[in-house]
Write the structure tokens for this entry.
Amino acid sequence: MTTHQDHGVESTMVASPAVEYGSFLHLDALLAATQQVPDHPDGRFFVLVHQAFEIWFELILHELEAARDDLFAGTVPDALYRLRRVAGVDRLLVTQLDTLTTISPAGFASLRPHLGTASGFQSIRYREIEYLSGLRGRGHAGVAPPGSADAARLEGRLREPSLAEAYRVLLRRRGVGDPVRLLRSGRPDSDLLAVAEALLDHDEAWAAWRMRHALAVERLIGHKPGTGGSSGVEYLRSRRDERFFPELWEIRTRL
Ligand code: HEM
């Protein structure tokens, strides 16, 4: 008979109360939420993929908040630890978009009536990630109904300082007037430079997400309008060049 001991597991196990995997992860509740799907061959897949995105968005928000607070507190190594994880998840989300094009255009056309006016455009967490990172220009009209709990959540985010602001404050406190000087120094041991690059990793992955999403959408629905009521691909293309930290991109031209 094979025992844990045979695999060397026992020696590394810490004595703790018995916890069962499924209950530790609340799998019954989590997976129950994946059961309500449109009656369509791609329905379950479509719902699950979006739910998976939202779970990762939730994690990204948590890590970004912590990274912002670390930057304000001046604990740069902690911020870098968080931002490294964020970038890892960001890249995963770009790749995750590849799975969408396993739905055929005809499959999506027949799924579409089941979706009504639901669209990723209404993802509150996606918009919160934009606001928390530093992209705040366009407001959220149409994303959350005025007066709703979601609108209140987004307005709360707009009142909070962003990650971009936390970095600007950190630079000021450390006496860096113009970040181009920081970039010119190119010093590999500069923690401020390391943060700039970590922020750009996040920004670049999100820019890649926008492009990848627009391409997948074009492949699935061509130039039809979106379920959320926008022009579809044209709208998505209009957002492709948005950036969380535009100044960190601009200084590259000034080097
Ligand atoms: C079958 C796959 C998909 C199609 C055809 C599609 C289509 C679209 C379209 C046309 C828009 C523009 C708004 C509208 O009028 O609806 C949009 C926006 C958006 N979608 Fe998707 N989408 C798909 C999958 C996803 C997935 C898996 C996510 C992940 C959460 C997502 C997140 C978003 C977000 C966040 C926006 C708003 C982007 C912005 O405002 O810049 N989409 N989508």
